[in-house]
Amino acid sequence: MALPGFLQRERIVARPGFNRWLIPPAALAVHLCIGQAYATSVYKTALVEDFGTSQTAIGIVFSIAIVMLGLSAALFGTWVDKNGPRAAMFTAACFWVTGFVVGGLGIETRQLWLLYLGYGVIGGIGLGIGYISPVSTLIKWFPDRPGLATGMAIMGFGGGALIASPLSRQLMNWYDPEYDPAVAGTVPSGGAVSALFFTLAAVYLVFMMFGAFIVRVPAEGWRPDGFDPSTVKQKALVTTESVSAKNAVKTPQFWLLWTVLFCNVTAGIGILEQAAPMIQDFFRTGETSTVAVTAAAGFVGVLSLFNMAGRFVWSSTSDYIGRKPIYMVYLGVGLVLYVALATIGSSATWLFVLLAAVIISFYGGGFATVPAYLRDLFGTYQVGAIHGRLLTAWSAAGVAGPLIVNSVLDTQGEPGSLVAANYRPALFIMVGLLAVGFIANLLVRPVASKWHEPHRDAAGTATPTAARSAVR
Amino acid sequence: MSTSLSQESSPNGQQPVHTPAGLIAFAWTLVGVPLAYGLYQTVKTALTLLTG
């Protein structure tokens, strides 16, 4: 199906003199909206009560959305690369907003399946397309600082939850004055949650469309002033060749990076999933914990800040020290910190918070650095599509992480009676996973030249790349 | 590097454009204000770790 003219890639090729610093806010406009996915806990209890169902039945909505994120990013990645960021952002906005409207109708009419279909399936497709939509464009606009560029956008995904959580509480308070977010135990009505969904749909539509309409792609052969591609070529593992998405998934490098991302995300989710009860349990003596419920909420806030900051700081750092070394830090130092958390984490609250915060910053950094790592290994040709396929690791980790932690804790005792020692088996499983990820990263080598796209001369004749040594 | 201009000429000989600074400032404000609001609220919550 042909795209309307205003969405076509040819219509958004930047003219000479276009300022590339307009692209990060375009990307952020999308990622700040879809980052709402990590703020679903603010209305979870309200939905449980309104539908009269279990935590699990409502929790599935989020799981469906994350699985759909991975699947849609993998399935539509090539389409996104081919049609450009405006078409992708526009489509993502349509799906994401429709997801809220259908989900809101589901809450309004108390049809849980509509919530699954709306927020989970339709919204999840918007999540996947939206997540990858600006990535390859940013990499092309910032060939000199790809880590910084993708770090900025993917930081927005973390920032989206920081905005959506307090905003949702405030809006639900307006729609249901009996709900007071400052008073523990008050729960907003289902009507307030559906009104919230419709409001967010309208706000996100405006924001995402703004991003879609200001985004541009660089003209063929464009490069920033003062940028010499030969300086990039000299870095280890960085290629100037092109590998298609179809070929990339046949390379060991793709699956090694898939393993790296899966292990890093699973380990991070291990803490994020249990953050509030975990800090209370680590400092529990008998029935009582020295960490109050409000302080535990503060701990979740600290983790959110480090998650977001890590995306920007570590990804930007990777531009200087290289992608493979930074993953050595995420996985190797992360492993040591995880061991410290399991063994000495309960000795002092400040130490526990510090260890967990740094681990979560590595979790965020892992997400934000992976597009630049893919660019280094496979080139910019179809990096968006390759990134989309790699995000299936996130979906898998989204299922595996909570499953590991919850199933281990279930064998250790009842919630509210657990102590630090009960977490050790789960934490050491995460240590093992990080070790696997570390080894996978260690094994990453340049992609073999047989996977490179052939170069075409002026007559259109393909020349093989095997003889060249563009990959170092 | 605050701005970066394209190469002198484009392949199809298009005239250079100047991106208005106001548009860039507006775009960054539009995403920066909500982000600042979210950060402020989260820092406020995080501080309860010390006071709570």
TrEMBL record, chain A:
It is a multi-pass membrane protein. Residues 1-449 form the Major facilitator superfamily (MFS) profile domain. One of its GO terms (cellular component) is plasma membrane. PROSITE patterns: MFS (PS50850). Keywords: Membrane, Transmembrane, Transmembrane helix. The chain crosses the membrane at residues 21-39, 59-80, 87-107, 113-135, 147-167, 187-215, 254-272, 292-314, 326-344, 350-374, 386-405, 425-444. It comes from Geodermatophilus amargosae. This is Sugar phosphate permease.
Automatic annotation (TrEMBL), chain B:
It comes from the Bacteria. The chain crosses the membrane at residues 20-40. Keywords: Membrane, Transmembrane, Transmembrane helix. This is Uncharacterized protein. The lineage of its organism: Bacteria, Bacillati, Actinomycetota, Actinomycetes, Geodermatophilales.
